[in-house]
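User: Structure tokens for both sequences below?

Assistant:
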Amino acid sequence: MVISAVAFSGMVDALLYPILISAIGIPVSLLTLLMIKVNSEEQVGPALKKMLIISSALMAVVMLFVTKAMLPDTFEIGGQAYTDLGVYFCFLAGLIAGLAVGLMTEYYTSHDYGPVREVAKSCETGSATNIIFGLALGYQSAVGPYLAIGLAIYIPWMLAGMYGVAIASLGMLGTLVIALTIDAYGPVSDNAGGIAEMAGMPEHVRKRTDVLDAAGNTTAAIGKGFAIGAAILTSLALFAAFLTRADLLLKEQHGPDFDLLGSINLLDPLVYTGLFIGAVLPAYFSAMTMKSVGSAAYKMIEEVRRQFRTIPGLMEGKAEADYEQCVAISTQAALKEMIAPGILIMGTPLITGFLFGIQAVAGVLAGSLVAGGVIAISSSNSGGAWDNAKKYIEAGNLGGKGTDTHKAAVVGDTVGDPLKDTSGPSLNILIKLSAILSLVFVPFFVQYGGLLIK
């Protein structure tokens, strides 16, 4: 919207175009839901994938007419002429990139394909090889999505500049309703399986919930992949808005000849140092969140052991456990342990801008954006692969439940849970919130920033 305000001042239709992309995605996604039917639990996973593909195809058709209707045939941004069809192809690039990220995530996290089965096979030689193969899968799985996201940045940039990249990020979110449906399905099916097991339901019920849960693990990974890809493109658009707004304010201070974008150079020590600081932020943030999960798990295990020791008959199933205390440990840790990571996210760009100026903040944002995406994708996909490798073995493959192979898979699943459920998804917040805060505090940076270099 910041870039639109510069390009389309007084043109209400063009200003509303970015909002319409998200708005039109809602009825398109609801129409897609009506087109898909499921008759058995085995059809759930393929049906969710079909929803993603169909909704993307419908959005591609509908947005062509919306773009032609809302945008002028040609327009200028920063002295460069662009066309409405060019903007449409920017949207299409983001939409296709989002679909590609989702499909590649499914390939690396579903036990219907080779990568997860390879991880499951590695469990035959123990937990160590399982961890090695799972980590390797996660790193490898980041390559394809990053290439897709890179193309979704380069092509829109060539067609419509930074405005095109912003539209591409909205294109990736064009099927947001479907993405949220796919993402929400995972924890619902997971909890259904847990309830079936705790309630002592028949074995055939648990088998059905296991099928649903395995599909849910994959769909949750697809949702996380969408979220990460959209976070990267959205943050890049926010980064551009940050520089655009700062440039306008600095021109007011130093005259129309001042060029902020021209002053940001990779060989500038402030920018280069900022890149290094930004690149290490996701790693440090992930370390903090992983340790938080480990600390909470340690307290939970100690509480469970205490209850087994002190509550007579609990081990034999004749007494009831103190569930309230366990829930309290989880909720208190969830709130308390996020204080330090939150301060890290909010404090880094603010302190950097105040002490070293806008160029240093630009380096920090770029570094955290590039490094954070890789860590987020690899963490989420490794965790999802470990989880589904365990499900693959529990389905009766490679010896089934109770074997040493299954025990090794359980270790991998335990390691993967904080990766896919905590560190990976939370990096989206680091990437986006840093850019949003920087954009909001641009006037402060312009007026008071660079305290140590003035």
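Moving on to the next sequence.
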Amino acid sequence: MVLLKLFAHIVKTIILTNIFEISLYQIMLGEDMSLATDGRVEKQSGQNRPVRPTIHTVAQKAGVSISTVSQVLRGKGRISDDTRRKVVKVANEFGYVQDRRAAAMRSGKSQEVGLLIHNIRNPFNAEVVVGVNSYLEEQGYLVYVLDALDDPVRQRRYLQTMLAGSPAGLLWVPSMGTDRETIDLVLARSSTTVSLLRPIPNHPFDHVGIDSTYGALLATRHLLDMGHRRLAFLGGDHNSETIVQRIGGFASAMFRVGVKPEIVRSCAETKSAAMEATVDLLTGHPDITGIVCNCDVVAAGAMLGLSRLGLNVGGDVSVTGFDDIEDARLLSPPLTTVAVDPVGIGRQLASVLLERKSMGNSPVRTVNLPIKLVVRESSGPPRTMAK
């Protein structure tokens, strides 16, 4: 019985070895890895199946070298127009799409950039993504976006996944509660990182941000200058450094005219949450004449809440936002807001990343982008003064 089992094991080993050798031989000939170059269909197990064309396929059919095909498809090199047209024609005929990651492994240079952001449903963040993508695409880079939803555990998992692919760079809005281990992970694995809006302590990376304190001060001062004194600040998580800065700007403006900033209410950055918070706020403080909101989405929700209460926006209660997203001017009435140009922020973020790649070990820097107040119909003098 023992001999029989031993014999069976030897036979099985021989069979597996032969299969492995045949498979290895096929791989070397390009038959099993979609490297066949004599057509677009190969026969296997009695069935026809499409063969994925490779750069070898395009090079052979175009009668040029693999490096020439690579340069043409990347828009690089000094290639004649005739050769370029011929390569593109063959690539289109075969439906060849360059494998960016394989090319990066060969060259050691990735053309992918990771963008880790929070709450992609927020229009501000979506417009930042548009700016990043448009700028980097012009420079030949591919951007992939992950949404960590402000969760430090999810953030760490996503960062590990992103950095495992050795991207050309990382653009990162750190989650609230980001720990030192996560920062060390990024420092160890990413040679080019730029943070956005939330700076890392001690500034180990280049940073692109805005002066949130000054922006909130502008919005609050605008309402105070029109005669408002009963103002509330609405929105955001008070554990966020950005929100703390905006509350600071709100409070600073109030103190300058001798008014205590007593009413500060947090809420999620969604229209529905802001609408409910506004109803509660005005029910408890019916004398409020103006609401300074931490972002445009919250301002839009506040306007819905005022409408539910039968109050006129800009007449009974003024509302200001922060961001100037595309929808801000389309609200009814159009929203007075602090304009920060989120698409422009995205483009600047991408620009700083590429500058860092070219500058190497130069000192890290912080870029604070300009902001301005855009006055529209959602703000006006208090009702008593308007009369």
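User: Anything stand out in the second?

Assistant: The longest strand covers residues 112-117.
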